[in-house]
## 1
Amino acid sequence: MEILITCNSSHPRREFVLQSCSGVLSDLLGSQFDEPATVDTKFVVLIDDDPKIPNWMRVHGMRETLWKHGFGVDVAGGDVSVVATLASGLQDIVIEMFRTTVPRCPGHPHPLAVVARDTAEWQCPQDARHFRCPVGAYPQQTG
Ligand SMILES: [Zn+2]
């Protein structure tokens, strides 16, 4: 699968948002969609500034032209808050568009939930002691 991130924002936080989106998408789509059968699938993420609200970026995901979902993020917020918002919003989009469970909670049938602590983390929605890891560092299965 091809993943494209297009950012039309000129905000000073642009690079941080881009890097954060890239880490989140790697967690969500890193190993799941490498099969040849889906190689022609293209997933596009568009980021731009909201023209009316200062420090507000809009994030849209598109799989095909008919599929389009978006959410907003207050980029003037703290890093943890921005990353948690991006992770949660992109997770919703990917789960809905691909009807998949990502990032999957190891050993459980549900996806991980986003929690904002000292950093933004993925954790088991039932028991944080079962599994948790920083957003952007979800361990990918190989082979
Ligand atoms: Zn779990």
## 2
Amino acid sequence: MASVDLSHHLSAEARLRKPTAMKEIWRLASRKPNMVSLANGDPPNILYPIKRVSFEIASPSGDDPVASWKTESANTPTQVIGATRDGPSVLPVKKAMQYTNGAGHVETQKAVSELAHAYHHPPNHVITLTLGNGDAVTKCFRLFGNPGDHFLADEFTFSALVQAAIPQGIKWVPVRMDDRGMIPERLEEILTSWDAARGPRPHVLYTIPCGQNPTGSTLSVERRGKIYELAQRFDLIIIEDDPYYFLQFPSSDATAAPKSTPSFVSLDVDGRVVRVDSFSKVIAPGMRLGWITSSTQFHEQLVALTDSSSQHPHAFGQIFLSELLGPEGWQLPGFDKWVRGLGMEYKRRCEFFLDLFAKEVATTGFAEAIPPEAGMFVWTRIYVEKHPRYRKEVAGVEGARGPRTNCKKLMEELFDTCLDEGLVVMPASIFKVDSDPHYTDPEDNIEDRLNYFRLTFCGTEETMRTGLSTLGRGLRVFFAN
Ligand SMILES: Cc1ncc(COP(=O)(O)O)c(C=O)c1O
């Protein structure tokens, strides 16, 4: 199946970037098995002071390996994976430690590619290893963004990355969300009513489809289908940032088949989806490894960018992944068992959190939790309109184009009250995507909808207990003033 030619989406920077000449020569060295090279400036591998790398890891045996791992005892099964200098191993140390291709060592790419294909069956896509989703998404912004371009995003999003694009000259256009994530009809409205005076219509959509950060929402299959159709109709690139994909909660119905929401990339017949995955939430954030699934055309561009910047992912992580997914490691069935265990564990934690929330916070009558289906976060709505000093003015509290309510100010006060009580939360304001005030509907200003906190159930039970009882107390204090 051929992908559509989408090269017109490439930024001026990407078009100007030439493949790194030295890396091109270096690639020639792998043309034949016994090519003699007097070309590369690699330190002789005999001088690498590393003979063996080994990792003792959890063994994915038993029904719920994550549950037995977290209650670690002398009997908790472990296994050792690793590599020696000369092998035999999937990726021997002397090879792993050399300079390599921007997409990573072929052995690791192959292992990760098999994993990506097992979950997403992408129609016509290839894998590029990355240093995690932060690295991957910001590289994608550089691939597609010219100064003055407009990009679309969930109206509340992982702001660290959105902010990274602003110095590049990208302007963000927030898409309205509800409790189930981005609303396709609102995306359509933006695209159909685009005012050409603003500049070219947005051509990139950045979205977090599962356990969204910060709202915890997961896009339904139906919404994904509609958004993909809009991407085809309006010629959008979709950057699918999905670090919480493997933290989807299993169905409560034990007889139901394991849930697997089709990703955007699995729908992508055109090559317009660039999917971004991370090992940060599956193995550990310090792994600093992830991968992009994209069309070959965008893969080549990403490799050129990496070749001339970070060069390639680090060898220790590539050894780890190659062995983890290789014949001596978990392989795909073991990996699948582990991530299903993670899904169950996060679901258990979430249920514990929501039970406590019902007792400690909902009983105040001032807040509700929106239950997620994946990820780490509970979007918590504060009934700010019940506050005695809440104000709503038809003319707007900051003029006709500004917000109509004092929601933002009251939420700042509530945040301070929580701090005074000894609790830190993430306020909605830090995740909002600012829109051009000239094109903001005064009846629907995001500043009037900042009455949310992002809370996490990643902490210990004790943290959740103390945190939620403090929140309940903070709400009572705040609403009494
Ligand atoms: C939506 C989203 N994207 C990207 C990242 C960064 O992930 P990584 O550790 O893979 O760089 C995070 C981390 O919290 C995230 O929530």
